[in-house]
Amino acid sequence: MTLSDLGAKVGRAPSQLSLLENGRREPKLSLLQSLAAALEVPVEELLRRQPPSRRAQLEIALEEAQRDPLYQSLGLSYLKVGKRMPNDVIEHILALYEELKRSRTKPTASPEEARKANAELRRQMHERGNYFGEIEQVAARTLGAVGYRGGAVSQGMLMSLVQHFGFDLRYVQDLPHSVRSVTDLRNRRIYLEREQLGMHTPRTILMQTLGHIALDHDVPRDFADFLRQRVEANYFGAAMLMPESAVVPYLQEAKAARELSVEDLADVFSVSYEMAAHRFTNVATHHLGLQSHFTKNDESGTIYKAYANDGLIFPQDSDGAIEGQRMCRQWAGRHVFAAPDRFSVYYQYTDTPNGTYWCLSHIDPSHERDFAITLGVRFEDSRWFRGRETTNRVRSSCPDGDCCQRPPAELAQRWEGMAWPSARAHSHVLSVLPPGAFPGVDDADVYEFLDRHAQG
Ligand SMILES: [Zn+2]
Q1: Do residues 33 and 63 both lie within one domain?
Q2: At 189, is the secondary structure helix, strand, or coil?
Q3: Residue 60 belongs to what domain range?
């Protein structure tokens, strides 16, 4: 029975019945009764939630699948299900649709997968001295296309870049909390918030967003792919805001004058301290012949980002992951939080079992928490940097447990078994927590606190 056949029987236009059929309108009881009479079924039959048959169930499921934006993103034309289409064909299509849904939601990895993916990525970065020549080239070509001639990149040039990729920029107030930007590929719009999100300025986020487009990224296959894309897009963003052709001569000159400084680099290119320090590691080995390390950690010492090709040994778990581990209390990234002026640059020499390092550390304040950004080199390379004359010098024997990973014996004796800390929830990027009975809790800190207050 077609819609017009049924419409004729109940005295309604087929278009009205179509609205009912698609769930856009609800019928009055009187219409329901006429429909039941016309179809020769009891009214309850029409109100039942279960599909009347397996066939009807499959047809409904296929109809719903075709309305899913994910399904529509495949760009297939609408499939009209005729009477002659066998059930197993519909079942086949539905199974493919389920697999599509499953595979597209994969980037949420288990902590183990995340740690492994991170470790593998770090291995690759280490191998190439954190320098990605092919991304430098894409960035240089892109800048060339909008007439970049040197120096820092102006705001006007950034807007030309957005146009160059055929996009339109929209500032909004209601961006979802879990994202930094949203790109509408259909209408070619990039949505951003005008305020700074922690260290991420709108222009940094914008360049990273364009990075996914410039580098032809596809929907990530798995977590490792997601991570690789994020690293590449961030690299592209830094290479756009701090072009290789401008940064390298600038740093070479500073090195010749023994005045290398991350603050100056951040100032000259108007980028965050974090971006300047990380960008330094991109070009340090390839162009300046310097090996270095970079870390980002919070006040509790939890490491969020780490890179090294200068032989520094980070704490790591059995999968080789460094993120989520706690940094030695003696390292510059920890001491900077206790420095008399915690927001100016802090310099320190650290004697480790693997040699002496010189580090500069700076706290980048952010919305949620402050992060210490550290750049370091081996002792002999400190001569190229401003701040080498510092008299701060400490000894770290980590990863040996007697350094700081265990509370001092005397303290532990007084408090072991007598402390019940309630852990602060970690909003860690990878939900990877440092190991311990109370994950994320620094026993030594807790014991010291107890000691102090017990005395008072
Ligand atoms: Zn230590």
Answers
A1: no
A2: strand
A3: 50-104
pTM value surpassing 0.90: no
Rounded (to 5) percent helix, strand, coil in the chain: 45, 10, 40
Cα-to-centroid distance, 258 and ligand 1 (Å): 30
CA 282 to ligand 1 centroid distance, Å: 28
Helix axis angle, 133-145 to 202-214, nearest 10°:
100
Q: What is the CATH number of the domain that holds 383?
A: 3.30.450.20
Q: Amino acid identity of 375?
A: L
Confidence class of residue 47 from pLDDT cuts 50, 70 and 90?
confident
Residues 9 and 57 in one domain: no
C-alpha 352 to ligand 1 mean position (Å): 9
Place of tokens 């010291």: 448
Tell me, yes or no, whether 24 and 63 share the same domain: no
The alpha carbon of 397 and the centre of ligand 1 are apart by a number of angstroms equal to 6
Helices and strands in the chain: count of H runs, count of E runs: 18, 9
CA dist 436 and 426 (Å) reads 14
Helix (H, G, I), strand (E, B) or coil at 17: helix
Spatial contact of 189 and 171, defined as CB atoms under 8 Å apart: no
Residues 218 and 300 occupy one common structural domain: no
Domain check: are 335 and 347 in the same one?
A: yes
Residue 93 domain flag: yes
Co-location of 60 and 39 in the same domain: no
The answer to whether residue 159 is domain-embedded is yes
Which of 111-115, 284-288, 376-380 has the least mean pLDDT? 111-115
Does some domain include residue 390? yes
| Ligand 1: centre distance to CA 285 (Å) | 27
Kindly state the tokens that stand for 162. 């957005």
Residue pair 34/52 in contact (Cβ under 8 Å)? The answer is: no
Alpha helices in 128-243 (DSSP H): 133-145, 155-164, 202-214, 223-241
Tell me the C-alpha distance between 123 and 151, whole Å: 32
Alpha carbon of 151 to ligand 1 centroid (Å): 41
Residue 427 above 70 pLDDT?
A: no
Q: In the 8-state DSSP scheme, what is residue 154? A: P
Q: Does residue 440 sit in the same domain as residue 374?
A: no
406 CA distance to ligand 1 middle (Å):
9
Tell me, yes or no, whether 304 lies in a domain: yes
Query: What is the count of structural domains for the chain?
Result: 4
Are residues 377 and 283 part of one domain? yes
